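Hi all, a correction to my earlier message: I attached the wrong file for High-affinity iron permease. Here's the right sequence:
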Amino acid sequence: MSSQLGNVVFIIWRESVEALLVIGILSAWLTHQGAGVGRAKAYLWSGVGAGLVVAVLLGWALVTLGDTLPEETQQAYQATVVLVAAALIVQMVIWMRRHGRTLKRELETSLSEAAAQSSWWGVFVLALIAVAREGSETAIFLYGTLSAGSGSGLLALIGAAAVGFALALATYGLLQLGGRVLSWRVFFRVTEVMLLFLAAALLMTGIGILIDLELLPALTGKLWDTSWLLSDGGTVGGMVSALTGYRARPVGIEVIAFVGYWVVVLWLLSTPRSITATARPTA
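and the right structure:
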């Protein structure tokens, strides 16, 4: 499997588990309410469907807009989407660190307010927003990843997405066992690190495109050459590059961007508020 398809599997897997977590919380809460739950769940699943439609429309709009642009503008567009995807990944990780512990309570509070008003449309909107958020992130991350790598066939991409979703269902099942096999905390900690490396790789891709377009200066020539040890043009090196942002022969602006990225990310993650939020709620 190529590094690009591996990233597709990872993104679908990670974001699907998050979406399943949210849907699981909403469904479990409604089940415990008893009377009227059948009607409420109809609104819940309608909201889930509407959220998926919003995500698909966003993905379609991203691809359609990119295809209609002239070649050079298309490169600038891809660089923009790649950099936005990198920023959104970092923002998502930090948000989960700061709000993950209270996510379940916040969802249930919103549901209680909707139930008190006998407004099941509130359930619909809550499910729509929750799923659309996860789905929109997935669409942007996937577009950024596909823009950054070599093109894969449509069937291969669909297969990778199917593998990612199947893994998500299996992972969610394990997580629902209550931490005996795999805990939510371990899952989110491991995948957060993987996401941050993926964001670094997308950042380096965006920087590379902007250098090619002469919108950013290289600042220096090649600072070093480790291609004899691990070439980012080879199979293994290409995979490492796609997953971490590794460059065998970086120029000055790439080194500055890579080091600056990790300095900023580690600083954001080390703020007191993020340190205190260390657990993820169970569904």
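Sorry for the mix-up. The radius of gyration is 21 Å.
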